[in-house]
């Protein structure tokens, strides 16, 4: 039986606050991570990734209290990243409630750490996070430190190296698409998917349910990840999943909220129902024995 495709919510932290990121250089505050995680969990997201964007730059590990609060607020698998430099850091995060860890800067600065983490905790625990930006010629390059540092790595060969070192998944983030709402970088995703055998999670660019559908039908991505869109669309996870199920995509739909019978606006919100339907419900007679 084929594995169902996943919808993953990314909670991006800056200085302890969840933010919406636009191009990795503009940020809009959202609020507390544990509250966001609780709503996303209730709405039926398959996994949550909690990433501290400033931890590595500030030479610290992600705040353990935030990790504990988020882990307590959700029942789905939790991936945590931010400032991880040692196996002991990974052990500390797992004890705080993380199911997986995400390595970004360490994946290229100290690639041997990938193997050490995989040996200690298993490949299923390790996600290699790869941030990619296209140069003036349109060629993709791996960047680190929130898009500030050009590592010089080609994303395809770097993804292969991460897989060989022990990564169990690749989180592929297109910086150029971050917050742009123009859709995923399908060409980049397909190139990486064709080069590795481990699951690839695509991030960056989602703005409508159509973007998720394009990713899951036109690439080999195992999961669609999103951040901003899940914060500004009501009941966003359930609405996106319902729209995808309308397109016969094999994706989990385990929330009580099911909007498949409704129409959807281009940005993903549910369309207004006809006045006749609303009036019928308002004046519908319900027998006492049913109540």
Would you give an account of this structure?
- This protein has about 290 residues and is an alpha/beta fold.
- The protein has one domain (about 5-280): Aldolase class I (TIM Barrel, Alpha-Beta Barrel).
- It is about 35% helix and about 20% strand.
- The chain has 11 helices and 12 strands.
- The chain has helices spanning about 35-45, 65-75, 85-95, 105-110, 110-120, 155-165, 185-195, 210-220, 230, 235-245, 275-280; strands spanning about 5-15, 15-20, 25-30, 45-50, 80, 100-105, 125-135, 140-145, 150, 170-175, 200-205, 225.
- Strands 1-4-5-6-7-10-11-12 form an 8-stranded parallel barrel, surrounded by 7 helices.
Secondary structure topology:
Layout: E1 6-14, E2 17-22, E3 26-31, H1 33-43, E4 47-52, H2 64-73, E5 78-81, H3 87-96, E6 100-103, H4 105-109, H5 112-121, E7 126-134, E8 140-144, E9 149-150, H6 155-165, E10 169-174, H7 186-195, E11 200-203, H8 209-218, E12 223-226, H9 229-232, H10 236-246, H11 275-282
Parallel strand pairs: 1-4, 1-12, 4-5, 5-6, 6-7, 7-10, 10-11, 11-12
Antiparallel strand pairs: 1-2, 2-3, 7-8, 8-9
Helix pairs in contact: 1-2, 8-10
